[in-house]
Amino acid sequence: MTVQVENEVAAREYIQAVYETVVKRNPHENEFHQAVKEILESLTPVIAKHPKYMKHSILERLVEPERLITFRVPWVDDHGVTHVNRGFRVQFNGAIGPYKGGLRFHPSVNASIIKFLGFEQTFKNSLTGQPIGGGKGGSDFDPKGKSDNEVMRFTQSFMTELYKYIGQDTDVPAGDIGVGAREIGYMFGQYKRIRGAYEAGVLTGKGIIYGGSLARTEATGYGCVYFVNEMLQAKGLSLEGSTVVVSGSGNVAIYSIQKATQLGAKVVACSDSNGYIYDKDGINLDTVRRLKEVERKRISEYVNEHPNATYHEGCNGIWTIPCDIALPSATQNEIDEEMARILVRNGVKAVGEGANMPSTLEAIEVFLQAGVLFGPAKAANAGGVAVSALEMSQNSMRYSWHFHEVDDKLHTIMKNIYRSSVQAAEEYGHPGNLVVGANIAGFIKVADAMIAQGVI
Ligand code: NDP
Ligand code: 2IT
Questions:
Q1: Candidates 3.40.50.10860, 3.50.30.10, 3.40.140.10, 3.30.479.10; correct CATH number of 67-198?
Q2: pTM score > 0.90 for this model?
Q3: Is the pLDDT of residue 17 over 70?
Q4: Which of 47, 68, 239, 342 would give a disulfide with 11, using CB separation of 3.0 to 4.6 Å?
Q5: Architecture of the CATH domain 218-375
Protein backbone atom coordinates (compact mmCIF):
# COMPACT_ATOMS: atom_id res chain seq x y z
CA MET A 1 0.00 0.00 0.00
CA THR A 2 1.22 3.50 -0.72
CA VAL A 3 1.48 5.90 2.21
CA GLN A 4 -1.48 7.85 0.86
CA VAL A 5 -3.73 4.78 0.76
CA GLU A 6 -2.53 3.72 4.22
CA ASN A 7 -3.39 7.15 5.60
CA GLU A 8 -6.79 7.01 3.94
CA VAL A 9 -7.54 3.63 5.50
CA ALA A 10 -6.41 4.89 8.92
CA ALA A 11 -8.57 8.02 8.52
CA ARG A 12 -11.62 5.94 7.64
CA GLU A 13 -11.10 3.65 10.63
CA TYR A 14 -10.65 6.62 12.95
CA ILE A 15 -13.80 8.32 11.64
CA GLN A 16 -15.82 5.12 11.90
CA ALA A 17 -14.68 4.61 15.51
CA VAL A 18 -15.60 8.18 16.47
CA TYR A 19 -18.98 7.83 14.76
CA GLU A 20 -19.73 4.54 16.56
CA THR A 21 -18.91 6.16 19.89
CA VAL A 22 -21.30 9.01 19.10
CA VAL A 23 -24.10 6.56 18.33
CA LYS A 24 -23.41 4.60 21.52
CA ARG A 25 -23.09 7.65 23.75
CA ASN A 26 -26.13 9.45 22.34
CA PRO A 27 -28.68 6.68 21.88
CA HIS A 28 -31.85 7.42 19.85
CA GLU A 29 -30.57 10.84 18.78
CA ASN A 30 -31.09 10.18 15.08
CA GLU A 31 -30.80 13.76 13.82
CA PHE A 32 -27.55 14.23 15.72
CA HIS A 33 -26.17 10.96 14.33
CA GLN A 34 -27.14 12.05 10.81
CA ALA A 35 -25.38 15.42 11.06
CA VAL A 36 -22.25 13.82 12.56
CA LYS A 37 -22.17 11.14 9.87
CA GLU A 38 -22.44 13.63 7.02
CA ILE A 39 -19.66 15.82 8.36
CA LEU A 40 -17.24 13.15 9.58
CA GLU A 41 -17.36 11.09 6.40
CA SER A 42 -16.60 14.09 4.27
CA LEU A 43 -13.54 14.88 6.40
CA THR A 44 -11.74 11.66 5.36
CA PRO A 45 -9.31 13.35 2.91
CA VAL A 46 -8.33 16.08 5.35
CA ILE A 47 -7.76 13.62 8.21
CA ALA A 48 -5.73 11.40 5.85
CA LYS A 49 -3.57 14.30 4.71
CA HIS A 50 -2.96 15.82 8.15
CA PRO A 51 -2.34 13.19 10.85
CA LYS A 52 -2.15 15.98 13.46
CA TYR A 53 -5.95 15.98 13.72
CA MET A 54 -5.96 12.33 14.75
CA LYS A 55 -3.00 12.85 17.06
CA HIS A 56 -4.78 15.66 18.88
CA SER A 57 -8.07 13.69 19.09
CA ILE A 58 -9.83 16.55 17.36
CA LEU A 59 -12.84 14.56 16.18
CA GLU A 60 -13.49 13.01 19.60
CA ARG A 61 -13.50 16.51 21.07
CA LEU A 62 -15.51 18.11 18.26
CA VAL A 63 -18.45 15.71 18.57
CA GLU A 64 -18.81 16.24 22.31
CA PRO A 65 -20.57 19.54 23.12
CA GLU A 66 -18.69 21.70 25.58
CA ARG A 67 -21.93 22.03 27.53
CA LEU A 68 -25.61 21.06 27.18
CA ILE A 69 -27.97 22.89 29.50
CA THR A 70 -31.58 21.82 29.97
CA PHE A 71 -34.04 23.57 32.22
CA ARG A 72 -37.67 23.74 33.31
CA VAL A 73 -39.80 26.52 31.82
CA PRO A 74 -43.05 26.92 33.75
CA TRP A 75 -45.61 29.45 32.53
CA VAL A 76 -49.30 30.27 33.04
CA ASP A 77 -51.73 30.47 30.11
CA ASP A 78 -54.56 32.98 29.67
CA HIS A 79 -56.96 30.68 31.55
CA GLY A 80 -54.74 30.44 34.60
CA VAL A 81 -53.49 26.92 33.79
CA THR A 82 -49.81 26.19 34.46
CA HIS A 83 -47.72 24.50 31.75
CA VAL A 84 -44.19 23.15 31.91
CA ASN A 85 -41.91 23.12 28.86
CA ARG A 86 -38.31 22.11 28.54
CA GLY A 87 -35.62 24.64 27.61
CA PHE A 88 -32.26 23.83 25.99
CA ARG A 89 -29.00 25.54 25.17
CA VAL A 90 -26.07 23.69 23.70
CA GLN A 91 -22.71 25.45 23.77
CA PHE A 92 -21.08 23.23 21.24
CA ASN A 93 -17.73 24.74 20.40
CA GLY A 94 -16.14 27.99 21.52
CA ALA A 95 -12.74 27.65 19.82
CA ILE A 96 -13.06 30.65 17.51
CA GLY A 97 -15.48 32.96 19.34
CA PRO A 98 -18.46 33.25 21.68
CA TYR A 99 -21.08 30.56 21.11
CA LYS A 100 -23.54 31.79 18.49
CA GLY A 101 -26.73 30.28 17.15
CA GLY A 102 -30.47 30.53 17.14
CA LEU A 103 -33.28 29.44 19.45
CA ARG A 104 -36.02 27.19 18.07
CA PHE A 105 -39.51 27.01 19.58
CA HIS A 106 -41.30 23.99 18.13
CA PRO A 107 -43.00 20.95 19.72
CA SER A 108 -40.47 18.62 18.05
CA VAL A 109 -37.48 20.19 19.85
CA ASN A 110 -35.41 17.73 21.88
CA ALA A 111 -31.73 17.12 22.71
CA SER A 112 -31.09 15.38 19.38
CA ILE A 113 -32.38 18.30 17.32
CA ILE A 114 -30.59 20.92 19.39
CA LYS A 115 -27.32 18.95 19.17
CA PHE A 116 -27.53 18.42 15.41
CA LEU A 117 -28.18 22.13 14.96
CA GLY A 118 -25.35 23.13 17.32
CA PHE A 119 -22.90 20.77 15.63
CA GLU A 120 -23.76 22.13 12.18
CA GLN A 121 -23.59 25.67 13.47
CA THR A 122 -19.97 25.22 14.57
CA PHE A 123 -18.85 24.58 10.97
CA LYS A 124 -21.25 27.11 9.45
CA ASN A 125 -20.05 29.90 11.70
CA SER A 126 -16.44 29.09 10.91
CA LEU A 127 -17.23 29.24 7.18
CA THR A 128 -18.55 32.79 7.48
CA GLY A 129 -14.99 33.91 8.32
CA GLN A 130 -16.24 35.67 11.44
CA PRO A 131 -15.16 35.07 15.07
CA ILE A 132 -18.16 33.07 16.29
CA GLY A 133 -18.33 29.65 17.96
CA GLY A 134 -21.21 27.18 17.61
CA GLY A 135 -24.32 27.10 19.82
CA LYS A 136 -28.05 26.46 19.55
CA GLY A 137 -31.06 26.28 21.83
CA GLY A 138 -34.79 26.37 22.13
CA SER A 139 -37.79 24.71 23.64
CA ASP A 140 -40.57 22.25 22.88
CA PHE A 141 -43.00 25.16 23.36
CA ASP A 142 -45.41 25.61 20.43
CA PRO A 143 -46.10 29.29 19.72
CA LYS A 144 -48.93 28.37 17.30
CA GLY A 145 -52.34 29.42 18.56
CA LYS A 146 -50.90 31.19 21.63
CA SER A 147 -51.84 34.78 22.45
CA ASP A 148 -49.19 37.50 22.52
CA ASN A 149 -49.44 37.54 26.31
CA GLU A 150 -48.88 33.80 26.53
CA VAL A 151 -45.85 34.05 24.25
CA MET A 152 -44.54 36.91 26.40
CA ARG A 153 -44.98 35.02 29.67
CA PHE A 154 -43.35 31.93 28.20
CA THR A 155 -40.36 33.80 26.77
CA GLN A 156 -39.88 35.74 30.02
CA SER A 157 -39.82 32.50 31.97
CA PHE A 158 -37.44 30.96 29.40
CA MET A 159 -35.05 33.93 29.66
CA THR A 160 -35.23 34.00 33.46
CA GLU A 161 -33.30 30.73 33.36
CA LEU A 162 -31.32 31.17 30.12
CA TYR A 163 -29.80 34.53 31.18
CA LYS A 164 -27.41 32.72 33.54
CA TYR A 165 -25.61 31.12 30.63
CA ILE A 166 -25.51 33.81 27.94
CA GLY A 167 -23.84 37.20 27.47
CA GLN A 168 -22.49 39.39 24.70
CA ASP A 169 -18.98 37.89 25.10
CA THR A 170 -20.01 34.35 26.03
CA ASP A 171 -23.05 33.13 24.13
CA VAL A 172 -25.31 35.09 21.78
CA PRO A 173 -28.65 33.52 20.79
CA ALA A 174 -30.88 34.63 17.90
CA GLY A 175 -34.02 33.34 16.15
CA ASP A 176 -34.82 30.11 14.33
CA ILE A 177 -38.12 28.27 13.74
CA GLY A 178 -40.86 29.85 15.87
CA VAL A 179 -38.59 32.62 17.12
CA GLY A 180 -38.84 35.92 15.26
CA ALA A 181 -38.86 39.62 16.08
CA ARG A 182 -41.68 39.31 18.64
CA GLU A 183 -39.97 36.61 20.69
CA ILE A 184 -36.52 38.26 20.48
CA GLY A 185 -38.08 41.53 21.69
CA TYR A 186 -39.64 39.92 24.78
CA MET A 187 -36.44 37.99 25.54
CA PHE A 188 -34.25 41.06 25.19
CA GLY A 189 -36.55 43.02 27.50
CA GLN A 190 -36.38 40.33 30.17
CA TYR A 191 -32.58 39.94 29.89
CA LYS A 192 -32.11 43.70 30.22
CA ARG A 193 -34.43 43.80 33.20
CA ILE A 194 -32.61 41.01 35.04
CA ARG A 195 -29.12 42.34 34.26
CA GLY A 196 -29.96 45.97 34.89
CA ALA A 197 -27.79 46.97 31.94
CA TYR A 198 -28.21 47.58 28.23
CA GLU A 199 -26.01 44.85 26.81
CA ALA A 200 -27.30 45.06 23.26
CA GLY A 201 -25.01 42.37 21.83
CA VAL A 202 -26.49 39.55 23.93
CA LEU A 203 -29.10 38.68 21.30
CA THR A 204 -29.25 39.27 17.56
CA GLY A 205 -32.24 39.67 15.31
CA LYS A 206 -33.38 42.57 17.50
CA GLY A 207 -35.77 45.26 16.24
CA ILE A 208 -34.06 48.08 14.37
CA ILE A 209 -35.18 50.69 16.90
CA TYR A 210 -33.44 48.97 19.82
CA GLY A 211 -30.12 47.72 18.46
CA GLY A 212 -30.97 45.41 15.56
CA SER A 213 -29.15 45.42 12.24
CA LEU A 214 -30.73 46.42 8.97
CA ALA A 215 -30.87 43.44 6.59
CA ARG A 216 -30.75 40.80 9.38
CA THR A 217 -34.39 39.89 8.70
CA GLU A 218 -33.63 39.39 5.02
CA ALA A 219 -30.16 37.90 5.45
CA THR A 220 -30.72 34.14 5.42
CA GLY A 221 -33.05 34.15 2.40
CA TYR A 222 -31.05 36.73 0.47
CA GLY A 223 -27.80 34.95 1.32
CA CYS A 224 -29.16 31.62 0.12
CA VAL A 225 -30.15 33.11 -3.23
CA TYR A 226 -26.76 34.87 -3.54
CA PHE A 227 -25.11 31.50 -2.96
CA VAL A 228 -27.27 29.73 -5.55
CA ASN A 229 -26.51 32.54 -7.97
CA GLU A 230 -22.78 31.87 -7.53
CA MET A 231 -23.30 28.17 -8.28
CA LEU A 232 -25.37 28.98 -11.38
CA GLN A 233 -23.02 31.64 -12.72
CA ALA A 234 -20.05 29.29 -12.48
CA LYS A 235 -21.90 27.06 -14.97
CA GLY A 236 -23.02 29.90 -17.21
CA LEU A 237 -26.59 29.67 -15.86
CA SER A 238 -28.75 32.32 -14.21
CA LEU A 239 -31.84 32.85 -12.11
CA GLU A 240 -33.36 34.99 -14.84
CA GLY A 241 -36.36 33.19 -16.32
CA SER A 242 -35.98 30.13 -14.05
CA THR A 243 -38.81 28.42 -12.20
CA VAL A 244 -38.26 28.12 -8.45
CA VAL A 245 -39.97 26.13 -5.69
CA VAL A 246 -39.43 27.27 -2.09
CA SER A 247 -40.70 25.23 0.85
CA GLY A 248 -41.86 26.94 4.03
CA SER A 249 -43.35 30.41 4.31
CA GLY A 250 -41.42 31.71 7.29
CA ASN A 251 -38.45 34.04 7.57
CA VAL A 252 -36.05 32.15 5.32
CA ALA A 253 -38.65 31.27 2.67
CA ILE A 254 -40.11 34.77 2.39
CA TYR A 255 -36.82 36.53 1.75
CA SER A 256 -35.59 33.78 -0.58
CA ILE A 257 -38.73 34.33 -2.62
CA GLN A 258 -38.19 38.08 -2.58
CA LYS A 259 -34.56 37.95 -3.74
CA ALA A 260 -35.13 35.19 -6.33
CA THR A 261 -37.97 37.24 -7.80
CA GLN A 262 -35.82 40.40 -7.84
CA LEU A 263 -33.21 38.46 -9.80
CA GLY A 264 -35.73 37.48 -12.45
CA ALA A 265 -36.95 34.06 -11.30
CA LYS A 266 -40.57 32.95 -11.04
CA VAL A 267 -41.39 31.33 -7.69
CA VAL A 268 -44.40 29.07 -8.22
CA ALA A 269 -44.87 27.37 -4.84
CA CYS A 270 -44.36 27.64 -1.09
CA SER A 271 -45.73 25.78 1.94
CA ASP A 272 -46.31 25.58 5.66
CA SER A 273 -46.50 22.59 7.97
CA ASN A 274 -50.00 21.70 6.71
CA GLY A 275 -49.66 21.92 2.94
CA TYR A 276 -48.45 23.85 -0.09
CA ILE A 277 -49.77 26.33 -2.62
CA TYR A 278 -49.03 26.26 -6.35
CA ASP A 279 -49.47 29.35 -8.48
CA LYS A 280 -48.18 28.77 -12.01
CA ASP A 281 -48.06 32.51 -12.74
CA GLY A 282 -45.83 33.15 -9.74
CA ILE A 283 -46.94 33.50 -6.13
CA ASN A 284 -47.90 36.88 -4.74
CA LEU A 285 -45.42 37.55 -1.95
CA ASP A 286 -47.43 40.41 -0.43
CA THR A 287 -50.28 38.02 0.27
CA VAL A 288 -47.94 35.38 1.72
CA ARG A 289 -46.27 37.96 3.97
CA ARG A 290 -49.53 39.36 5.28
CA LEU A 291 -50.98 35.91 5.94
CA LYS A 292 -47.86 34.49 7.64
CA GLU A 293 -45.99 37.47 9.13
CA VAL A 294 -48.89 39.67 10.21
CA GLU A 295 -52.02 37.55 10.57
CA ARG A 296 -50.19 34.30 11.54
CA LYS A 297 -52.65 32.27 9.47
CA ARG A 298 -52.36 29.08 7.39
CA ILE A 299 -50.96 29.18 3.85
CA SER A 300 -54.16 27.44 2.66
CA GLU A 301 -55.92 30.83 2.93
CA TYR A 302 -53.86 32.11 -0.02
CA VAL A 303 -56.20 30.49 -2.54
CA ASN A 304 -59.17 32.46 -1.18
CA GLU A 305 -57.53 35.59 -2.55
CA HIS A 306 -55.88 34.04 -5.63
CA PRO A 307 -58.40 31.67 -7.24
CA ASN A 308 -55.92 30.62 -9.97
CA ALA A 309 -53.69 29.06 -7.33
CA THR A 310 -54.26 25.61 -5.87
CA TYR A 311 -53.76 24.31 -2.32
CA HIS A 312 -52.59 20.77 -1.55
CA GLU A 313 -52.61 19.08 1.86
CA GLY A 314 -49.29 17.65 3.08
CA CYS A 315 -46.04 19.50 2.66
CA ASN A 316 -43.63 17.10 0.91
CA GLY A 317 -45.69 16.94 -2.29
CA ILE A 318 -44.28 20.37 -3.10
CA TRP A 319 -41.20 18.61 -4.51
CA THR A 320 -43.27 16.97 -7.24
CA ILE A 321 -43.74 20.39 -8.90
CA PRO A 322 -41.33 20.71 -11.85
CA CYS A 323 -38.71 23.41 -11.23
CA ASP A 324 -35.22 24.53 -12.20
CA ILE A 325 -34.25 25.48 -8.68
CA ALA A 326 -35.40 24.04 -5.35
CA LEU A 327 -34.90 25.99 -2.13
CA PRO A 328 -35.96 23.81 0.83
CA SER A 329 -36.48 26.40 3.58
CA ALA A 330 -38.78 24.81 6.17
CA THR A 331 -37.17 22.11 8.32
CA GLN A 332 -34.90 19.06 8.56
CA ASN A 333 -35.35 15.97 6.38
CA GLU A 334 -38.06 17.46 4.17
CA ILE A 335 -36.46 16.01 1.00
CA ASP A 336 -35.97 12.26 1.12
CA GLU A 337 -34.51 9.97 -1.53
CA GLU A 338 -37.82 9.57 -3.35
CA MET A 339 -38.48 13.32 -3.53
CA ALA A 340 -34.89 13.92 -4.66
CA ARG A 341 -35.37 11.42 -7.50
CA ILE A 342 -38.57 13.16 -8.55
CA LEU A 343 -36.84 16.55 -8.55
CA VAL A 344 -34.01 15.14 -10.67
CA ARG A 345 -36.45 13.47 -13.07
CA ASN A 346 -38.24 16.82 -13.44
CA GLY A 347 -34.97 18.48 -14.42
CA VAL A 348 -33.92 20.40 -11.30
CA LYS A 349 -30.60 22.17 -11.93
CA ALA A 350 -29.76 23.55 -8.51
CA VAL A 351 -30.72 23.01 -4.87
CA GLY A 352 -29.96 25.62 -2.21
CA GLU A 353 -30.58 24.50 1.35
CA GLY A 354 -32.17 27.43 3.18
CA ALA A 355 -33.22 25.20 6.07
CA ASN A 356 -30.82 23.22 8.26
CA MET A 357 -30.33 19.63 7.02
CA PRO A 358 -33.47 19.63 4.82
CA SER A 359 -32.12 16.81 2.64
CA THR A 360 -31.56 13.30 3.98
CA LEU A 361 -28.15 11.70 3.39
CA GLU A 362 -29.71 9.57 0.64
CA ALA A 363 -31.27 12.61 -1.03
CA ILE A 364 -27.90 14.40 -1.07
CA GLU A 365 -26.36 11.37 -2.74
CA VAL A 366 -29.07 11.42 -5.44
CA PHE A 367 -28.39 15.11 -6.18
CA LEU A 368 -24.62 14.67 -6.29
CA GLN A 369 -24.80 11.58 -8.50
CA ALA A 370 -27.11 13.38 -10.92
CA GLY A 371 -24.75 16.36 -11.17
CA VAL A 372 -27.27 18.78 -9.65
CA LEU A 373 -25.62 21.93 -8.28
CA PHE A 374 -26.03 21.38 -4.55
CA GLY A 375 -25.53 24.15 -1.98
CA PRO A 376 -25.42 22.48 1.44
CA ALA A 377 -27.12 24.21 4.39
CA LYS A 378 -24.06 25.23 6.32
CA ALA A 379 -22.82 27.19 3.30
CA ALA A 380 -26.07 28.28 1.64
CA ASN A 381 -27.91 29.48 4.75
CA ALA A 382 -24.92 31.00 6.56
CA GLY A 383 -26.00 34.52 5.60
CA GLY A 384 -28.32 34.77 8.61
CA VAL A 385 -25.69 34.11 11.23
CA ALA A 386 -23.15 36.14 9.25
CA VAL A 387 -25.36 39.23 9.52
CA SER A 388 -25.97 38.37 13.17
CA ALA A 389 -22.22 38.68 13.65
CA LEU A 390 -22.39 42.03 11.83
CA GLU A 391 -25.15 43.03 14.28
CA MET A 392 -22.79 42.17 17.15
CA SER A 393 -20.08 44.32 15.55
CA GLN A 394 -22.45 47.26 15.20
CA ASN A 395 -23.58 46.86 18.83
CA SER A 396 -19.95 46.88 20.00
CA MET A 397 -19.26 50.02 17.98
CA ARG A 398 -22.55 51.63 19.11
CA TYR A 399 -23.06 52.44 15.45
CA SER A 400 -25.27 51.21 12.64
CA TRP A 401 -24.65 50.65 8.97
CA HIS A 402 -27.08 51.44 6.17
CA PHE A 403 -29.10 48.62 4.60
CA HIS A 404 -26.97 48.59 1.46
CA GLU A 405 -23.74 48.42 3.50
CA VAL A 406 -24.90 45.34 5.36
CA ASP A 407 -26.34 43.78 2.21
CA ASP A 408 -23.05 44.38 0.36
CA LYS A 409 -21.09 42.76 3.19
CA LEU A 410 -23.53 39.82 3.16
CA HIS A 411 -23.08 39.43 -0.59
CA THR A 412 -19.29 39.42 -0.23
CA ILE A 413 -19.44 36.89 2.60
CA MET A 414 -21.63 34.53 0.54
CA LYS A 415 -19.22 34.79 -2.41
CA ASN A 416 -16.30 34.03 -0.08
CA ILE A 417 -18.10 31.02 1.39
CA TYR A 418 -18.75 29.74 -2.12
CA ARG A 419 -15.13 30.30 -3.14
CA SER A 420 -13.62 28.65 -0.07
CA SER A 421 -15.95 25.66 -0.39
CA VAL A 422 -15.05 25.23 -4.07
CA GLN A 423 -11.34 25.53 -3.29
CA ALA A 424 -11.42 23.04 -0.39
CA ALA A 425 -13.38 20.54 -2.51
CA GLU A 426 -10.79 20.80 -5.25
CA GLU A 427 -7.78 20.68 -2.96
CA TYR A 428 -9.03 17.53 -1.23
CA GLY A 429 -9.93 15.62 -4.38
CA HIS A 430 -13.69 16.16 -4.73
CA PRO A 431 -14.02 18.95 -7.30
CA GLY A 432 -17.50 20.44 -7.44
CA ASN A 433 -18.70 18.66 -4.29
CA LEU A 434 -19.66 21.54 -2.03
CA VAL A 435 -20.78 19.20 0.77
CA VAL A 436 -17.20 18.04 1.16
CA GLY A 437 -15.82 21.51 0.43
CA ALA A 438 -17.95 23.36 3.00
CA ASN A 439 -17.35 20.77 5.68
CA ILE A 440 -13.58 20.78 5.19
CA ALA A 441 -13.28 24.57 4.93
CA GLY A 442 -15.35 24.99 8.10
CA PHE A 443 -13.47 22.23 9.93
CA ILE A 444 -9.89 23.34 9.37
CA LYS A 445 -10.20 26.69 11.13
CA VAL A 446 -11.96 25.25 14.19
CA ALA A 447 -9.62 22.27 14.42
CA ASP A 448 -6.46 24.39 14.13
CA ALA A 449 -7.78 26.81 16.76
CA MET A 450 -8.45 23.84 19.07
CA ILE A 451 -4.91 22.55 18.59
CA ALA A 452 -3.46 26.01 19.25
CA GLN A 453 -5.42 26.32 22.49
CA GLY A 454 -4.38 22.97 23.95
CA VAL A 455 -6.45 20.14 25.37
CA ILE A 456 -9.48 21.90 26.84
P1 NDP B 1 -40.00 30.21 10.67
O2 NDP B 1 -40.57 29.78 11.95
O3 NDP B 1 -40.01 31.65 10.30
O4 NDP B 1 -40.68 29.43 9.46
C5 NDP B 1 -40.66 28.05 9.40
C6 NDP B 1 -41.49 27.60 8.22
O7 NDP B 1 -41.31 26.20 8.04
C8 NDP B 1 -42.97 27.82 8.41
O9 NDP B 1 -43.58 28.02 7.16
C10 NDP B 1 -43.41 26.51 9.04
O11 NDP B 1 -44.78 26.21 8.86
C12 NDP B 1 -42.54 25.52 8.31
N13 NDP B 1 -42.25 24.37 9.17
C14 NDP B 1 -41.73 24.39 10.42
N15 NDP B 1 -41.62 23.16 10.93
C16 NDP B 1 -42.10 22.34 9.98
C17 NDP B 1 -42.25 20.95 9.91
N18 NDP B 1 -41.90 20.15 10.93
N19 NDP B 1 -42.76 20.43 8.75
C20 NDP B 1 -43.11 21.25 7.73
N21 NDP B 1 -42.98 22.58 7.75
C22 NDP B 1 -42.48 23.11 8.85
O23 NDP B 1 -38.49 29.65 10.65
P24 NDP B 1 -37.27 30.08 9.73
O25 NDP B 1 -37.73 30.50 8.40
O26 NDP B 1 -36.42 31.00 10.53
O27 NDP B 1 -36.48 28.69 9.63
C28 NDP B 1 -36.67 27.78 8.56
C29 NDP B 1 -35.45 26.88 8.44
O30 NDP B 1 -34.29 27.69 8.17
C31 NDP B 1 -35.08 26.08 9.69
O32 NDP B 1 -34.51 24.85 9.30
C33 NDP B 1 -34.02 26.94 10.35
O34 NDP B 1 -33.20 26.17 11.20
C35 NDP B 1 -33.27 27.43 9.14
N36 NDP B 1 -32.47 28.63 9.30
C37 NDP B 1 -32.99 29.79 9.79
C38 NDP B 1 -32.22 30.92 9.88
C39 NDP B 1 -32.76 32.23 10.30
O40 NDP B 1 -32.01 33.21 10.28
N41 NDP B 1 -34.02 32.34 10.69
C42 NDP B 1 -30.78 30.89 9.53
C43 NDP B 1 -30.34 29.63 8.96
C44 NDP B 1 -31.17 28.56 8.88
P45 NDP B 1 -45.90 26.70 9.92
O46 NDP B 1 -46.19 28.12 9.57
O47 NDP B 1 -47.01 25.77 9.71
O48 NDP B 1 -45.26 26.56 11.27
O1 2IT C 1 -29.38 28.28 11.81
C2 2IT C 1 -28.95 29.45 11.87
O3 2IT C 1 -27.87 29.78 11.37
C4 2IT C 1 -29.78 30.46 12.54
N5 2IT C 1 -30.89 30.14 12.97
C6 2IT C 1 -29.28 31.86 12.73
C7 2IT C 1 -28.40 31.94 13.95
C8 2IT C 1 -27.98 33.32 14.34
O9 2IT C 1 -27.30 33.40 15.38
O10 2IT C 1 -28.28 34.30 13.67
A1: 3.40.50.10860
A2: yes
A3: yes
A4: 47
A5: 3-Layer(aba) Sandwich (3.40)
